[in-house]
């Protein structure tokens, strides 16, 4: 009864005064928040703890692998090629994962994905020459690790939550992701910069990257152990491959394509911009850290005190911040412009996720009931919507950088992507209305 009343209180309409008292309670009595967390279902808590540990790994993979390639090759198209092969490996692995779910426990597949990310980093760091072929192989390996990780993470997030507590789930998760994306780049960037200036590892900067990779691998082992503490159930229905879908799901795929457009850039452009206009990896960490811990706490508060009806508003704010950052970068195209852009990026991504993922899960809830299909069907199919968007976004960058100029691509293509992203707002609003209508 206590858990039910907590969730009801979280999402029931509140008067402004009541909400303000709750916010004061959050600040003054953090122990209450821990008790609130303990009131959530055990399987949801185990999943969150696993993801919190792995949150220390993701910034290294997403930021410093790109910076390492950029440093070693000095070629932004090689960085883009790496990201393209990563994205090519993800949907392929979603497909393989769907078949393996009929035979292997989902927690084992989840652990394998996390361990494979550390292994793919080791492969990258042992390459003597960063040729297109070598980078491509390392990228596909990393894509496979992301595929196993995200396919099973998304299914478990869907299975262990409901529409009423998903804002809280993603708010808490993005709270930790945002903290780690601030702290980890700062610490790792400072370590790499100090290694270079103090001539640690006999002046071999690759050794510094390898040391970071070892720490990453240890964290993936720890997170893999934690996820085994709960017996998660695999999807009940074995079939997950379909080619015809409800019209609502097709609209969700359009929203996924728009999200993918930005993703293609946000793992490539920041590292290139910082290396070109700001400085080395130490600067990369400092730029991320400037956004401050305030962002993380803002995200937690949003997850804690908002409900389904606030998602479009949060999405709108996120996209407006992203557009502002791209305009600052394009108009200034200087160290200051990059700093403003990265600050906006740090705000945009988690805000967008808090709104986007619950909308996606809500659509899966509704459409899977209508069509009577395995929920993994939609998680698998959703990845292709993202992939198409990523392919278009990265393809645009590669074409502009190769046939116009790198500066033109870094200046203006981001603005184009940000403007296109604004279409997400009316699409998301329409999708939510359709979900509410069909779920009556």
From TrEMBL:
Name of the protein in question: MFS transporter
Gene3D superfamilies: MFS general substrate transporter like domains
Keywords: Membrane, Transmembrane, Transmembrane helix
SUPFAM superfamilies according to UniProt: MFS general substrate transporter (SSF103473)
Transmembrane segments: 46-69, 81-101, 108-127, 133-151, 172-193, 208-227, 248-273, 285-303, 315-348, 384-404
UniProt keyword annotation of Transmembrane helix present: yes
Keyword Protein biosynthesis part of the UniProt annotation: no
């Amino acid at each position: 009864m206590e858990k039910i009343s907590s969730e009801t209180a979280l999402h029931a309409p509140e008067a402004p005064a009541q909400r303000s008292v709750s916010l004061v309670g959050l600040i003054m009595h953090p122990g209450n928040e821990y008790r609130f967390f303990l009131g959530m279902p055990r399987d949801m808590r185990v999943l969150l703890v696993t993801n919190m540990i792995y949150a220390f790994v993701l910034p290294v993979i997403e930021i410093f692998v790109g910076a390492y390639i950029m440093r070693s090759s000095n070629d932004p198209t090689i960085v883009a090629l790496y990201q393209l092969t990563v994205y090519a490996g993800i949907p392929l692995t979603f497909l393989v994962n769907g078949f393996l779910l009929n035979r292997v426990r989902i927690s084992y597949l989840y652990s394998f994905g996390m361990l494979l990310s550390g292994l793919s980093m080791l492969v990258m760091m042992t390459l003597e020459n960063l040729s297109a072929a070598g980078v491509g192989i390392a990228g596909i390996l990393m894509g496979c690790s992301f595929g196993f990780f995200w396919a099973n993470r998304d299914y478990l997030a869907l299975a262990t939550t409901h529409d009423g507590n998903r804002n809280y789930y993603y708010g808490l998760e993005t709270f930790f992701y945002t903290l780690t994306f601030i702290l980890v780049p700062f610490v790792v960037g400072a370590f790499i910069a100090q290694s270079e200036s103090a001539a640690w590892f006999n002046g071999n900067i690759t050794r510094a990257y390898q040391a970071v990779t070892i720490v990453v691998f240890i964290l993936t082992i720890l997170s893999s152990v934690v996820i085994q503490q709960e017996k998660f159930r695999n999807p009940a229905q074995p079939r997950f491959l379909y080619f015809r879908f409800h019209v609502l799901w097709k609209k969700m795929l359009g929203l996924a394509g728009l999200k993918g457009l930005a993703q293609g850039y946000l793992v490539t452009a920041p590292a290139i911009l910082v290396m070109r206009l700001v400085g080395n990896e130490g600067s990369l960490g400092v730029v991320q850290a400037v956004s401050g811990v305030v962002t993380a706490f803002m995200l937690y508060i949003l997850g804690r005190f908002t409900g389904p009806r606030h998602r479009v508003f949060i999405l709108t704010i996120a996209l407006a911040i992203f557009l502002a950052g791209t305009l600052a970068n394009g108009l200034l195209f200087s160290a200051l412009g990059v700093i403003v852009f990265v600050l906006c990026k740090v705000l945009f991504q988690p805000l967008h996720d808090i709104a986007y993922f619950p909308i996606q899960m809500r659509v899966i809830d509704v459409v899977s009931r209508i069509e009577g299909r395995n929920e993994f069907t939609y998680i698998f199919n959703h990845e292709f919507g993202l992939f198409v968007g990523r392919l278009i976004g990265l393809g645009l960058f590669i074409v502009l950088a190769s046939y116009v100029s790198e500066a033109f691509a870094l200046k203006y293509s981001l603005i184009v992507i940000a403007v296109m992203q604004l279409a997400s707002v009316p699409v998301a609003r329409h999708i939510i209305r359709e979900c509410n209508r069909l779920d009556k």
